[in-house]
Amino acid sequence: MVQVGSSLLRRRALAATFVAAFALTLVPTAGAESQIYWWQHNMAPGEQGFSRTTAHNHTYNELYFGPNAGWRSEVWEITPAGYRHFDKDCVGNCFNSHPGYYYDYPYCANRDSSTHFVNDCMDRW
Amino acid sequence: MTSRKLSLIVLTVAVAGIAAAVLSQIGLGGSGKVQIGTGKVSALSRAGRTSDALPSSVLSYPFAAHNFASPDGAGARLVKTDGSLELYAVPGKSGMVCLIEVDDLAQTAGGACADRHVLLTGSIYMADRQEDGSRQVVGLVGDGHAYAEANGRRTSVENNVFVLPEVEGSQVTIGSATAAQTIDLGD
């Protein structure tokens, strides 16, 4: 009787392990969420792409014009209180990866004097 | 208003416009028109070393897939180490060249990739705003550039790159023994 009970417990534990492992595969990796906040359209001189829906502790911000980029760009972040952080000016396509110190919104901008097509601006948190 | 007066005004505006255009081309407010070298980056041609391998974290970013000629960063060269800051030159897609900065101590990384024609008249640079309002500027330049300068402080170009910390204002000058170019960092 004791052996039957022990065997049953082992099988239940094994089944529970499989269920837990399967559930874990469905959970996104913590800290690896991302979004594209500007998608494939022209950006005028000085125009800003941004996402102010929900602030996050961002760790990554990228602007990607395309393979022909050769003009100034900028990526940065702003907290809900208006403080600017992780501000990087570049020539061409640009990214900034950093610790998630601030709860903020991501921004990107075309800093040339002409309009350019922007493939995407994306962030991670 | 007589048609004569109107003609005079139109003529004056036209002359002023032409004068402004000419002045901008000879250096009063213009930049990036002076050409230095051929845009070649010799640092990318030297024999590879183990230390040239880009950190796996950099290769995992979407930026690498978007821009690098090879997904594994093949051809990258570690071109400068300055304290905890490491700078890499990386061959990019479709004729682009990339500058990648990695600071393990600060746990930061950044990158800029642009068409290599930029190197004829300027630099592929990154300018990071610091807490005190100044900027740290790192730049990749083509062969022939010898120095970078800002706020009266000059630094040498080595392996096609320069590092200028604590830059105030919005301009950096890069140059050779015989010519200089102005880089506008923006506001």
> What structural class is derived from the secondary structure elements of chain A?
alpha+beta
Low-confidence stretches of chain B: 19-32
CATH class of chain A: Mainly Beta
Beta fraction of chain A: over 45%
* Contiguous uncertain segments of 5+ residues of chain A: 22-29
Main sheet attributes: strand count, strand direction, barrel closure of chain A: 5 strands, antiparallel
Total DSSP helices of chain B = 4
Number of strands of chain B: 11
- What overall form of chain A do the CA principal axes indicate? elongated
Supply the number of helical segments of chain A: 1
Task: Give the secondary structure arrangement, pairings included.
The complex is a heterodimer of chains A (125) and B (187).
Chain A: H1 2-26, E1 34-43, E2 48-50, E3 56-57, E4 60-64, E5 72-78, E6 84-91, E7 93-97, E8 103-110, E9 116-124
Chain B: H1 3-25, H2 56-60, H3 62-67, E1 77-82, E2 85-91, E3 96-103, E4 108-115, H4 118-121, E5 124-129, E6 135-140, E7 147-150, E8 153-156, E9 161-167, E10 171-175, E11 180-184
Antiparallel strand pairs in B: 1-2, 2-3, 3-4, 5-6, 6-9, 7-8, 7-10, 10-11
Primary descriptors:
heterodimer, A: 125 residues, alpha+beta, Jelly Rolls, 5-stranded antiparallel beta sheet, 9 strands, 20% helix, 46% strand, B: 187 residues, 2 domains, 4-stranded antiparallel beta sheet, 11 strands
Q: Please, could you describe this protein's structure?
A:
The complex is a heterodimer of chains A (125) and B (187). Chain A is an alpha+beta fold. Chain A contains one helix and nine strands, in the order H-E-E-E-E-E-E-E-E-E. The termini of chain A are far apart. With 187 residues, chain B is an alpha+beta fold. Chain B has a four-stranded antiparallel beta sheet, with no helix packed on it. Strand 7 (93-97) of chain A pairs antiparallel with strand 4 (108-115) of chain B.
